[in-house]
Write the structure tokens for this entry.
Amino acid sequence: MFGKLALSALALLSLGAAPAPLADRAGASKDIAKACGTRDGWADPAPPAHIHGETWYVGTCGITVVLVDTGAGLVLIDTGPREAVPHVLANVRALGFDPRRIRWILSTHEHFDHVGGLAAMQRETGADVVAGPFIGDALRSGTPFPDDPQASLLKDEPMEPVKVTRTLRDNGSLFTYDPRFTAHATPTHSPGSTSWTWRSCDQDGCKTIAYADSNSTISADGYRFSDNPRRIKQARYGLKRIAAMPCDILITPHPGSSNLLERLSGRGALVDAGACKAYAAAGMKRLDQRLSREGQSK
């Protein structure tokens, strides 16, 4: 009988079944929205919170940083700005994880508010930095792409160069097994913007988490999208890619863009299969409105 039970357990594991998540892990907040209140600064401390399965929020009140326990090591997505790194590490420890178990660091886009702490985090953890399809050069150099609509602003916030261990192709995955962490080139907000999807399982089943990069097309003063048709094409392409991604649970780099903290606190649906499409549609509408304003200002 014991042998049959053991074989059954192994069979479940081979099919990708996961144990119940530690949603009550010590240190995880039940109401991260209340803890942050009206604070949304990029380095404003927030407690860690449970997202789904073995996926956790370890960022600040204004910047999303995600931690995933793969069972074979931890994956971190984004780091926040340089000054947020000690707080992110403290959140990882508060959940009972050793930061030295962080083996891979992924990123959404190459701006200092999201990956300004990448070099420091790499030193603290010894993790490999895995780049999306087009972000690698900016991470290696610490300088923005010349065609980034925010390039003139970003020059005032230089980032420390990092060592990129691996670059994934578009639709390439970090692993050959779940959670795969598939990279989607979504160059809407910046030329290197990358969105990520992975499967997360708990006792109630499996969901696909979509960390969709920013849907905004903001820029430095004086920049006109109308004068940069290639950038318009890239932005629209990225939004279409976001809309088409598998998406049960939407996460965004700025939590306020998807009411993430409220949803993690039970004040809104966490699971919504139409969330990525709605998020992309909102970004497309704002881009169209901007182009209309630019046309009227000629």
The two ends are 80 Å apart (CA to CA). The domain at 25-296 is CATH 3.60.15.10 (Metallo-beta-lactamase; Chain A). The chain has one domain: 25-296.
